[in-house]
Amino acid sequence: MTDCLFCKIVNNQIPAEKTFEDKNFLAFKDIHPKAPTHILVIPKKHITSLADMHPGDAPLIGQLMHRVALIAEQVGIAEKGYKVVLNIREHGGQVIPHIHVHLLGGKALHWEV
Ligand code: 5GP
Ligand code: ZN
């Protein structure tokens, strides 16, 4: 989508500190990190949120979650553990309407809602 911030990062119209990139996925550092490691992992395909995915997107989203686990290994937080967060729509606190997985780690994290 042309006016989507994360699509613009995918298309290199906005710079980002990339951690991983392949044909289908992109990972980059969150601009306002909430933990020592805070990476956003997205599919390059514009899907607005988890609530907006179609049944046909299920393999892609499954691969997205596997990619998150591999990136956690890559950046060295897998052994100690980490948190994965998906914010969905208004009550979920979603600000950017392009599905993204927050990968958080590097210290013990608490779960606040
Ligand atoms: P949400 O609240 O939508 O789940 O999270 C969006 C995340 O994107 C926030 O943690 C925010 O800090 C991050 N973010 C917003 N704009 C940018 C940007 O231009 N670049 C990067 N790298 N992260 C961003
Ligand atoms: Zn998008």
Order of helices and strands: HEEEHEHE
The gross shape turns out to be: globular
N→C terminal distance: 31 Å
Bound molecule kinds, no repeats? guanosine-5'-monophosphate, zinc ion
Largest sheet: 5 strands, antiparallel
Strand order of the largest sheet: 1-2-3-5-4
Over all CA atoms, what is the radius of gyration? 14 Å
Give me some keywords for this one:
113 residues; alpha+beta; HIT family, subunit A; 5 strands; 22% strand; globular; binds guanosine-5'-monophosphate
Strand-helix topology:
Blueprint: H1 5-10, E1 18-21, E2 25-29, E3 37-43, H2 58-74, E4 82-85, H3 89-92, E5 101-105
Antiparallel strand pairs: 1-2, 2-3, 3-5, 4-5
This protein binds guanosine-5'-monophosphate and zinc ion (ZN).
Q: How does this structure look, described?
A:
- The protein has 113 residues and is an alpha+beta fold.
- It has one domain (5-105): HIT family, subunit A, CATH 3.30.428.
- Helices cover 24% and strands 22% of the residues.
- It has three helices and five strands, in the order αβββαβαβ.
- It has helices at 5-10, 58-74, 89-92, and strands spanning 18-21, 25-29, 37-43, 82-85, 101-105.
- The chain has a five-stranded antiparallel beta sheet with strand order 1-2-3-5-4, covered by helices on one side.
- A hairpin with a 3-residue loop joins strand 1 (18-21) and strand 2.
- It is globular and about 35 Å long.
- The termini are far apart.
- The mean pLDDT is 97.
- Bound molecules: guanosine-5'-monophosphate (5GP) and zinc ion.
